Structures are given as C-alpha cells and as structure tokens.
Amino acid sequence: MELDHLKKSFSALHSKLERLSISDKNELFHKAYIHNPWFTFDNLKLAWKGMLVLLEPQKVATWLDQYDADRSNAKNVGVIMAGNIPMVGFHDFLCVLLSGNRLQGKLSSQDKYLIPFITECLIGIEPRWQSLIEFTDNMKGVDALIATGSDNSARYFHYYFKDIPHIIRQNRTSVSIVDDNTTTEQLEGLGDDIFTYFGMGCRNVSHIFLPKGYDLGKLDSAWKKWQDLMDHHKYANNYFYNKSILQVRQAPYFDFGYVLLEENLDWVSPTSLLYLEFYDKLSEVKQRINQNENKTQCIVADPEVFDRAVPFGKAQFPKVDDYADNVDTMAFLAKI
Fold it and tell me: What is the pTM of this model?
C-alpha cells in the first residue's frame, strides 16, 4: 500500500476512534475488564488516550517521513505481544503496518479484545487491510520477529528465532531520581509514574533514588490520591502478600497503607512494593543507572538533574518515536 494511502487510513482510524460513542467504548472496556480485572475503566481510558496520541495524524506523517522503507514488498512480521497493561502491543502493531509489512500477531491471553477491535475499525475504513493482519498463535513462516516477554521467554525466543531478523525485549523497569529541590507537584507526578496501571508496565517506576536523610513523609503526602488502590482486590492481595514476606524476612520497611517501601539495591520490585536507594552524590546515581542500563526503560527526573530524563508525570505518555528499549522499530522494519 502506498505511503499516502497508509497515512490516510490511519488518519481516518484516529478520527473514528476519537469519535467512538460512549456506549460502544464502555461495551469494549467492560469486555476487557471482565476478562482481565487489572484492566480497570480508569486504566483503559488512560491507555485509549495514549493510543489516540500515538495516532495523531500530523505527528504520524512527520514520523513516517523520516524513514525510507520499501513498501512494495510486504514481509510477514511476527509480533508476540505482552499483556501487562492495556494495548501495550499497539505501537508494534502500528510500526509493522505503517512500514508496509504484513502483521502476524500473537495476542496476549490477558488482552484479547482491544487491538482486534481497532483492527476491525481499520478494515472497515480500508478493506485491503484484511489480508495484511492476522492474529494467530502460530509464528511459523515469519520473515522477522518482534517479541516482548519475560527474561525466561526471551531466552526461548532468541534460540527459536535466531535465524531471522528479530527484536526481542525482556524485563525492564523505570527508575526515578528525587533530590532536595524536587517540588510537591513533581512528587505528585511521580506518583502517577509509579501507580498508573498498578505499576505493572515497563515505564512504571519501581526504584527511587533519594538523598540521604530525605523525609519520606513528603512522598506519602504527595501520593495520597492513590490510597484507593487498596479497593482493588488483586492489588490489595499483592500488598498483603508482600508485607507478609517482608515480615517473615524481618526486613525493615516503610508502610504507607497502600504501598510498601524497602531499601533495596534490586532494580525491579513486585506490585505494591517500591525499592528505595539513598545517595550522597548524584554521580553515584548516574553510575548505578549506567550499570543497569539494559534493565532500564525510563529515568524519571528533572531534566536539569539527568539529561536523558523523562519529566515527572510523563512516563506513561510516550511519543510515537519513543521506542521500547531504545531500539528503533521502524528502522529495523525498513531493513528486513
């Protein structure tokens, strides 16, 4: 399909999804929530908003103009999608189709309805997409692969798909740097970066660097709006489980009543638990981040503190050219 036609199709998709009736959207969200209770209506609304941001026509057009892809020879690109947060595989879906390739997608068992709904809307706009999109559990015959999963599944993917071009993503998380100049407003934004999607995304902060002697009461005050997380039974179960583990280990911890905080050098923390690391000098923090670069998705901080920082409160709103693991998916697809 020609580039101009691709742009028009996805521009029309943006308009259609943006104008989707409340009743149709609620029906879709209800189906997704019943299937996976982690997908609450609030989280689904946020993911939908983020998806519309990715589809903004002018931004998509500017983005696509940066790449010189051969769209006359579509390849079968397998995409194995994660399901930790709603529509987490949408960016790969977008990249494969807009690069002129055919999508052979494996949906997560946790997220079975959202992207197929969007696909139906796209085919309704342009029926030719029907032959270019397939959802299947079978990855045989793919010319290239994009897979997102755990560290264990990544080892399997690397072995099984070693002979074809591939992008294989594994466990990553995000970290934050707080200093004595961090404002209350920034701490409130950090709360969004931590607790949105129950902290289950790779762009969620799970490890925080704090100056030694920092008053943790500032964090609790800034994050109070998130105490309703405990009304969600799955989150509450994780909270009580992790609290019991900390008590059995006799590990010192802080308890805000809706999140647990432990001083711990590990990078990835479980749901409802945050790891804290105290520092004397920012140079120590930068060294730690460099040492764990292959485990890190975002660094949330004031840009004046860390030059590659995502501003507080913005971690869950990636731009269309923000690529997971800093691997340019479109450049990869242009070369296969």
Answer: 0.93
pLDDT in tens, 89-129: 999 999 999 999 999 999 999 999 999 999 999 999 999 99
Tokens of 109: 């068992």
Cβ–Cβ contacts within 10 Å for residue 130, how many? 12
**Cβ contact 173:204 at 8 Å:** yes
Q: Which CATH superfamily is domain 3-170 in?
A: Aldehyde Dehydrogenase; Chain A, domain 1 (3.40.605.10)
- How wide is the angle at C-alpha 252 spanned by C-alphas 251 and 258, nearest 5°? 105
The stretch 150-179 carries a mean pLDDT of 94
Give the CA angle between residues 284, 319, 120 to the nearest 5°. Answer: 135
CB proximity list for 97: less than 8 A, separation 6 or greater: 6, 10, 103, 129, 132, 133
Residues in contact with 326: Cβ distance below 8 Å, sequence separation at least 6, in sequence order: none
